[in-house]
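subagent[fold] <- orchestrator: predict structure for attached chain, return tokens only, no commentary.
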Amino acid sequence: MLVNSLTFIAFFFYALASSHVVARLFHKDGPNKKLTLLLSTVAILSHMALLVNLVFTESGQDLSLVNISLLICWIIVVSITTVSLRYPATLLLPVVYGFAAILLIISLFLPHHIILKSINIDIALVTHISLSFLAYCILIIATLYAIQFYFINKRLKQKDLSIAYSHLPPLMVVERQLYQLVTVGTLLLTVALATGFIFLENMFSNDFIHKTILSILAWCCFVAVAWGHKYRGWRGKSSIITTMFAAFMLTMAYFGSRFVKEVLLYQF
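subagent[fold] -> orchestrator:
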């Protein structure tokens, strides 16, 4: 009952925050920052309380795919909300709030408590997982910036005058933040992969080889985007598509097999 209540509270306030920002996106005064922050804060706190109840159980830590997805979503929401306090992120807020609301509702219908265990402290493994987790969150945020860049750039090329009166951030600011995030995320992913190759013996075992290959392919794409922008001045549609493709491969590497095992096969 508590889990369901927290889920619906978080969903409701995420939906309200998202709707408010969208409704005021092209208004001359823009979204009310205090109201947006109030609504999102209630949603974030409810989301956090939900995670505490889902992950920490009497039997140990429930690290099912659903709970990990909700945790990553919460980190991204908190990050984008924090960034919005200093830099314009008007287009990103309804995206992350809307996605969080949808994920919360979906989580009610997906199986939980599939992977339930106490965490064994292995410094090498914890370091690898933590770096991979952090790299993934940053690169997903970078992908959101890439989508925002593409949207603003397209509207400008179409000479859409409404973009000038919107509260969207300047294109050059979005571009600078995008490539900063890609660079930082790629560096973290590099270290994460390196720690995996150094400390883990099963990176190329049958159970993990698909994750390793997809992660390496995603890393190559992110490196190409970061290097090409810095040394060749690459920008625009090709870089955006490459970033989105790399994020998709990294998502498949991290969650693909677990989704099949914990959701699809669980139903049968």
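orchestrator: received. Logging for downstream: The chain is about 75% helix and 5% strand. The first strand starts at residue 56 and ends at 57.
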